[in-house]
Amino acid sequence: MSLPSKSREMSSRSSYEEREGLLTASDEYDSFDDPFGKDLKTEPDDEAGWSRSKIVKTATGFILLLIFGAFARVLLRSPRQTHPNLSFNGDYIRSNGTHDFRRTALIVSIDGLRADYLDRGLTPHLLEISKRGLRAKSMVPIFPTLTFPNHWALMTGLHAESHGIIANNFWDPQSELEFHYNKISSAWNPNFWLGEPMWETANKAGIITANLMWPGPPKTKSGSSPTYFVPWKDKVPLSAKLDQLLAWIDLPFDERPQLLMAYEPSLDQAGHLTGPMSALVNQTLAQVDLFAAALHDSLVDRNLTDIVDIIFVSDHGMTDTSHPTLIYVDDDDMLGNQGLEAVVHEDGWPAMGLRFNSKKNESYYLEKLLTSKHPHSEGFNVYTKETMPERWHFTHHDRIAPIWIVPKIDYALTTRKEGDVGMSKGNHGYDNNEPSMHAMFVAHGPFSAVVKDLHRSSFGAWLPWKNKGWHSTSDDTYVMNSFPNVEIYGLVAKLLGTEGYASYNNGTKGFWDKYF
C-alpha cells in the first residue's frame, strides 16, 4: 500500500579489575608477616603475650583499613560518572560512521502479546534482542486491560481516571457524547483524550516525531500533532510498516524523527478470533517475531544500535474465553429484565459500567446486585466508585459509571437474548493483577547498554542492593521485575532528555534512576 510521507525529519564495559584487585589485596594481607617479631625485646611471659596480642590487633586493624579504603575507592570511581551513554541524550550528536544522528527512541507496540508468549519457543528473535539488551518479567497494564486505555497510558504515563479513556467505548456525561474506538468521529475527537502524549512532550522540546498508526488522535486538545502521522488502517502488511519506519530513519538529519511510534494489531486479532492457545496465535506470534528481527537487523546494518533505543511493548495479554461460565445479567437474581431496561448507558467490555435512568433505580439495583444470591456469585464483583479497588486507579473521573460489574477470569457477562453468540474465543479487560493480562517489555540500545554495563561492573558487583528490581539469567539475559506500564512515558523522556518538558504523570518519580 502507499503510505503517507512527511507532513512538514562506546558503550564501554567497565572491567572486573577493581573487584579482582580487592580480592587479591585481601588474600595478600591474609598471609601478612609481622615485621617487628624478630626485634622484640625479651620480657616477662605475661607482658610478652600482651605485646603480641596488641601487634596482631594493630595489624588486623591496618588490614581492615586498607580493605575499606579500596572498597571506598570503588564507590568513588563509580561507572555512573564515566559511562558514555549516561550523557547521551536528545541534544548529543553521534555518528554511525556515515551520518550524524541524535539520540533516537523507537517504540513498537504489538497488541495482545501476553508476557508468557515469549516462553513458547516461537520468538527466538525477540529473545535474542532481549539477550543483547534486556526484558521485563512482565509489564503490568492499567485497568481496564483494554487496547485504547492502555495505549494512551503508554503514551501519557497516566491511569484511565487521569487520561479519560476509561474503556474502548463509553459515554461522557459532560459532552453527552459516546466514544467508540472504531469510529473516527469520536476516536479522533481530541476532547476525549486527556493528558500529554510523549510525542507532544517531544514537540515542546523541538524534537521531530513520527506516529505509525498508534491508537490515539492525530491532534491533542492543545493543537499539537506528531510531525509525521500515518492514520490507522487494518491489514497493512508488516513489510510496509517496516519500510515506513526505515524511510523515516533514513531521512536527512534535519528532517529525521528522534521519536518513532508504531502499532501492530494482528496478534490481538488472532487471539480474539481463535484464543491464546491456538495455532493461529502461534503462527502470528512467529510472524511478529520475524518483523522484530527485521527491524532490529536493519538498525544493526545501519550501525545504529548504539544510537537508537528500540523498545518493544504490548498493551495487555489475553485469556481463553472459548468456554466461559455465562452470567446472565437479565436474570432475576441479577438486574432482571426491568433493571436492564432501566440502564441508559452501558460502558466497557467484558466488564459492564452501568448508568441508570434515575438515582432511585441506581440505588435499588445496586442493592439488588450487592445482595444477589446468584449461583455463580463467585465469578464477578460489583463496585461503585467508592468501593473500586484503589490499585486500579479507576475512581476519579465523571466518565466512570457509578456501578460496575466486573467478571473474573473464566466468566463472562451476557444476556439471555445474546447468550454466547458472537463471543470471542479469547479476551482481555480483566483484573490487571491476572498474569494472563500482563504485557511484555523488551529493549535494546544505548539504554540497555547502560543498565548491563553498570551492573556487570565492579561497582554493581560490590553493592548489596544491586539486584533489587532485576536479575540476570544463566544465558546472560537481564530480566527486570514486573513494572507498571505508566513508567514508559518517563523512560522515553529520560532517553530523549526531555524530562524538563515532561507533563504531570502517574509514573514513579526516579523509577528509572535505579537502572541507570
From TrEMBL:
Region (Disordered): 1-46
Pfam families per UniProt: Phosphodiest
UniProt record, GO biological process: nucleoside triphosphate metabolic process
Signal peptide: none
Gene3D superfamilies documented for this protein: Alkaline Phosphatase, subunit A (3.40.720.10)
One of the record's GO molecular function terms: nucleoside triphosphate diphosphatase activity
Biased composition (Basic and acidic residues): 1-21
Domain of life: Eukaryota
Protein known as: Phosphodiest-domain-containing protein
Native source species: Lentinula aff. detonsa
